[in-house]
Amino acid sequence: MKVAIVHYWLVGMRGGEKVIEALCEMYPQADIFTHVYAPQEISETIRQHKVVPSFINSLPRAAKMYKTYLPLMPMALEQFDLRGYDLVISSESGPAKGVIPAPDALHVCYCHTPMRYIWNMYHDYREGAGPMARLLMPSLSHYLRMWDVSSAARVDSFVANSQTVAKRIRRYYGVDSKVISPPVDTEAFSIAPTSELEDYYLMVGELVAYKRPDLAVRAFNAMKSKLIVIGGGDMLEEIRQLAGPTVSVLGPQPFEVLKRHYARCQALIFPGEEDFGMVPVEAMASGRPVVAFGRGGAVETVANGVSGVFFNEHTVEAISAAVASLADISFDPEKITRHARQFGRDQFFAKMRAHIEDLQAQKHSSWR
């Protein structure tokens, strides 16, 4: 079986790229198609495959400014020649599903979320954009929405990474989807002895506006409690400027450093509304509780009172109250870890294989 994997861009290793790694393990013969490819930023697992970038990869500063080429991405996807591929798996949160598969091919879209900057978070993105972008966004987003909805018809089956995303797929594309959690490598993390726990809280992830890192930093400035921030992103310098004396902003860190901080923190702070959110699962796999905003994927992965607590307003006071409430709960690290393991890699492999095999059987039976 000839397999094509389509991913929006390969410029770093975040949650979407971890899904691509798992798909590469499932289909070692697969070719990968993407808008922009920065091999030095990508894992060896992905680099071992044939990677075909679009023409956008040749445009000026594409590896850094790929988002500015968004208007060209629908056309770029349609230039990929997928004749001869039996199975196409698109990985969608930027434009990826709009390829043109062969008539007899099976096209499965693993959807991290419909493009948030033109759908559920459009007004947030426009509000934070510069003057020229704010001027252009209404007409550009209108065009992209029309293409995005029409290209959904090129997909045989949508797989959502959470119930939250399944609801968005139903709202924006008008179709149902199968929910399969992304593959979190829960076995890569371990519980630290109680004697090694330290007195800091931890925030991990890309520092971008919708994840609300600024809110967490302001809360810990106000509480005068220790917070360690790990991650890069557009807001890194802004967060460093905002950080008070009790907040340490480490920037991007190697996995071993991240793993050690997960295991020794008092709790993970997760202030944004995520589609799924691998970071809370990684913290729980380390036996540590999570303080999360009570919307989005976190409500599907964090068990209130068992593996963490929620706050329901994006305010300093709400985060402070949630952190204070941890003192009243006796968390069992072993129980937290067992809870996290239901989101491990094995469930992803088993469920994705079963779903694709079922779809292939249905497709073959319809030809008889």
What labels describe this entry?
alpha/beta, Rossmann fold, 13 strands, 40% helix, 15% strand
What's the CATH H-level superfamily name of the largest domain? Glycogen Phosphorylase B
Q: Which class best fits the helix and strand makeup?
A: alpha/beta
Give the CA-based shape: globular
Helix content: 25-40%
Per CATH, the architecture of the largest domain is 3-Layer(aba) Sandwich
Task: Give me the number of helical elements.
Answer: 15
In the predicted model, the low-confidence regions spanning at least 5 consecutive residues are none
Rg over C-alpha atoms, rounded to the nearest angstrom = 21 Å
Order of helices and strands: EHEHEHHEEHHEHEEHEHEHEHEHEHHH
The CATH topology of the largest domain comes to Rossmann fold
Largest sheet, if any? 7 strands, parallel
Protein name: Glycosyltransferase involved in cell wall bisynthesis
Organism: Bradyrhizobium erythrophlei
Keywords: Transferase
Domain Glycosyltransferase subfamily 4-like N-terminal: 14-187
